[in-house]
Fold this protein.
Amino acid sequence: MKKKQKDKQLANKKILCRLTIIFLSVLFFGLLFFCGFSTYIYYNAPEFQSELLYRKESSNIYDASGTIIATIGNEKRIIINYEELPQVLIDAIIATEDARYFEHHGFDIYRFFKAGYGFLTGNNAGGASTITMQVSKNTFTSNESKGIDGVIRKFTDIYISMFKIERDYSKEEIMEFYVNSPYLGAGSYGVQMASNTYFDKDVKDLNLVEASMIAGMFQAPGEYDPYVNPDKTNSRKNEVINLMLRHGYITEEQACEAKKVSVEDIIVEHNSSINKYQGFIDTVVQEVIDRTGNNPYEVSMDIYSTMVKSKQDIINNFYNKHKFKDSKVQVGIGAIDNETGAIIAVGAGRNKKSEMSLNYATQIKRHPGSAAKPIFDYGPGIEFNGWGTHTMFEDKPVKYTNGGVMNNVDHKYQGMLTLEQCLVRSRNTCALQAFQKVKNSNINKFVTGLGITPEYFKNSKYIHEAHSIGAFRGVSPVQLAAAYSAFGNGGYFTEPHSITKIVYKNGSKEEVREFNFEKNRAMKATTAYMIAYMLKKATRSGVRIKGTDISAKTGTSSYDDKYLKKLGLSTRVVQDAWTVTFSPDYSVAIWYGYDKLTKKTYATTSTAWSQRAKIQIEVAKKIMKKGSKYKKPKGIISRNGGLAAK
């Protein structure tokens, strides 16, 4: 019995010994890793240059020929002292960004572990960056947040915050760095200029609502710009007010009253002199942010863009000289180089009054109407089902699979038609038949290969049949032009882009980042040629150029009849009017319409069709090169009086 007890005690001691060894080993290697990682951070941290805390070199944007078209972010700020900041703004910033700001020394370990636990459990517990760490990120490191690079960046910010910034500067001075340096939308840098821009007053005179709006803009000034997204700005303002209430800076009564005030009621009209190429500049800036996480207004860089000045001037002149129906109607334009996928020019919208306002070339999503037919219907049918231009369809009443009947615009039927006739005449019933005859997964493969994102039925990859006539969440002009570029260049798709190279400027150091965009085959050359060949016959005579192959497709989307009746409007009112014009060289997509439908802002069928035709002549025709012809690929044969692939 005693022997068994001794054996058990001995076994327990061995287990305890092993656990102790394992624990000490883990502790040792953990400490070793920590020391190694800390040493790496120490030696690889960027040089601390105190002068950068206030001043940054500007960013330059160049066109495709290397000529500078804009300088942005070049110290357009008014520096203020901590004493000039109203307490309500300080409270709003601290409540929103760093509730324990005056308690920690640059790193809030409680918040860090809370955020980490939230990440592991799938609950959003907010970010772990303190205001001091954000100063470090905005000045010395980057916005990298993913993978090992993101981890290294985060710990580098902790090091700089604790051992550089907080060691040498007071909390009040750090707050000055934070509020004076950032871009806060509408061409404003720092809180003083933002206060002047949005409220026409000094920052010291801000009230609770105004301070909450500005405090909410620090993390995403473009998204929360009140001139661009007033609804989002208002929601964000209310979030800040809720945080101020939670942390005891304001009473429940003050919060309720402040949330009743809309930002649209308190901001002043924005008047600024902007660059004539601002639409393309905004396109470039947004792409840089999307691809790198760095904002050129805040991070100094030279950006080499794809803008062709002569082509952009054509669009600018159109905006300045065209006679529009009213001041509210908008036009978005995207022009693509078919060979490279480069965005050579954009029509970002009429009456552009501020930087980074809504971009009608890249940021709108509108129903393409019949302009979707080559992409969702006839292109996939030729590609996967072996159709030719004279494959036969019957223009007749056609039912959707789940019920309901497809109608043509004229509510008439023309009987037996060739595919070419269906496409050129834009018969809806034929388009739906074509969609139904092609395997849905093949349609999905075709359209996604052209950079289009369709809507899927529930949680599947099934594309619903309304796509056959362009009734889905929609596309932007740049997206549609890029998709059509594959029909003009023999079947290749390249992701549309407005930048080719970035050179970061960080003191004496320069980092070059080049962007290479792959050219991928999206369809057979024979498919592309047949679509281009047929759409030459859909091109209006006023757009044609002698000796040049130019193809075109129009598209129109409609509102629900019940909705129009409710507003007291005619069923002839249309939602979106499109033209896409392409040649072997360029593709140009033009959208015409209104932001919102009201009893005063609407376009009828006749107005929309007339306007898009005029704009097509004024813009698309002038952009095209002369003397370009589609190359007939091998494998095209004559069949049944039309063209087909072998």
Observations:
- The first strand starts at residue 59 and ends at 62.
- The chain has three domains: 2-44, 77-265, 369-502+518-645.
- The CA atoms of residues 198 and 267 lie 5 Å apart.
- The mean pLDDT is 89.
